[in-house]
Structures are given as C-alpha cells and as structure tokens.
C-alpha cells in the first residue's frame, strides 16, 4: 500500500462498526491491524491523522450497560470511561511500532471560534511535524447538543479542512455507496464512482445506518460534500 501512496497528509476515519466488526465489543485484532497500516504510512513519510470513534461503545462494554440506554448524560459517562481505554489501546499499539500517539478531543465550538481553531490547527500540525500520530475524537463528555458535531464522519471532514489534508478516507465496513440501503433492499447496487454530490447521490444514501455508531452512508456523503 505504501509504495504507491502519494498523499502527504491524509485524515483516516475509523468508525465504531469498523472497530467492532459490527459487534458490541471492540475488536483488538482490528485495532491492531488498523494501527499497523497507519504505522506503515507514517514510516513511509506520510503524516496520517486518525479520527476514531468507539469511546461510547468501549465505555458501554466496560460498564456492562444496556445498548438501549442512549440519553445524552449517560452517553457522556460512557464516553469518559471508554475514551481513556480506547486511547490507552491506541497508545500501546502504536508504541509497539515505535510511534507515539496523542489524544486530541474537540467540539464544534472549538472549530467555530478563530483562536481555538488556530490552537487546534497548530497543535495538530505540530504533532505531525514531530512524527506523532494524532487520534482525534469529539469531546463527548462536554459536548451538548448545541456545540457538538454529532458524528465523526462530519468531524473528520472538519479536521481535514483544519489541517489542509490532501485526502480524507472514511474507512467503512461496507464496500461503498449503494443505490439504496443494501441491508433492507436486495436490489441495491454498488455505485463505483461518484464525481460530485448530486441530489440523486444524497437520495441513495439517505437513512442508512449500521445502528452502532452515529453515522451511516448519509453522513459520509455529507462529509464528502
Ligand atoms: N464520538 C463517538 C464515540 O467515540 C462516535 C461518534 C460517531 O459514531 O460518529 O463513541
């Protein structure tokens, strides 16, 4: 993969479904595999920035709490428990490759106000320049409805702009965009290339969600837009 990788500063987004393999548990094998690929990029001279979900799912796993409890204050508790565990694992796995990683938590408000935007940008670029891999997530613990981005597809698009990324990769457990949700419509066909985000493309993606993370194909299409 690295031989032909011509991007300089890609933002790579790993969603909850990717990290859990569609289950309710974080898959250490998947995480190790993703980290290995990011490490290979970094060693090839690329400056990857990771946007990772999974905090709420890992928190739920650790507290053994039911999947149907979704109120905001409880999700904030889960995020607080899960984020530190998730980050610990990233840190250990990157350390195995001799690479340092760093936690960067932001909310929409941090990206909307100029000084905070510049602080976030300078920190991220400073980390990249030192060969440290930033692991970005939304600061769910403090993000209320008014100030939160809400899903990491959108957050990763904002981060890509923030750091002048030349590529945004939304890693997914589905092969791509379909003409309808393939989980509910057997006639759905894979769309191989999308040159621009037309109303038709948005209609294809509407309403699809894995039910695990917050996003789905519609937030991916809107992040691309
Ligand atoms: N920030 C959430 C988490 O870490 C994920 C949001 C999303 O699924 O897009 O659990």
Q: Can you describe this structure?
A:
The protein has one domain (10-174): Carbamate kinase (3-Layer(aba) Sandwich), CATH 3.40.1160. The protein is 45% helix and 12% strand. The chain has nine helices and five strands; from the N terminus they run βααβααβααβαβαα. The chain has helices at 16-20, 28-43, 55-63, 72-96, 108-112, 114-129, 152-162, 199-205, 217-224, and strands at residues 10-14, 49-52, 101-106, 133-138, 167-171. The site of glutamic acid has 15 residues, from helix 3 and strand 4. Residues 15-16, 53-57, 137-138, 140, 151-152, 213-215 line the site of glutamic acid (GLU).
Topology of this protein?
Blueprint: E1 10-14, H1 16-20, H2 28-43, E2 49-52, H3 55-63, H4 72-96, E3 101-106, H5 108-112, H6 114-129, E4 133-138, H7 152-162, E5 167-171, H8 199-205, H9 217-224
Parallel strand pairs: 1-2, 1-5, 2-4, 3-4
Helix pairs in contact: 2-4, 3-4, 7-9, 8-9
This protein binds glutamic acid.
Number of domains: 1
Portion in beta strands: 5-15%
- Terminus-to-terminus distance: 26 Å
Task: Report the average pLDDT across residues.
Answer: 91
> What compounds are bound to the protein?
glutamic acid
CATH topology: Carbamate kinase
Write the element-wise H/E pattern from the N-terminal end onward. Answer: EHHEHHEHHEHEHH
Total strands? 5
* Largest beta-sheet details: 5 strands, parallel
Full CATH superfamily name: Acetylglutamate kinase-like
The CATH architecture category equals 3-Layer(aba) Sandwich
What is the CATH class? Alpha Beta
Number of discrete helical segments:
9
Structural class, judged by helices and strands?
alpha/beta
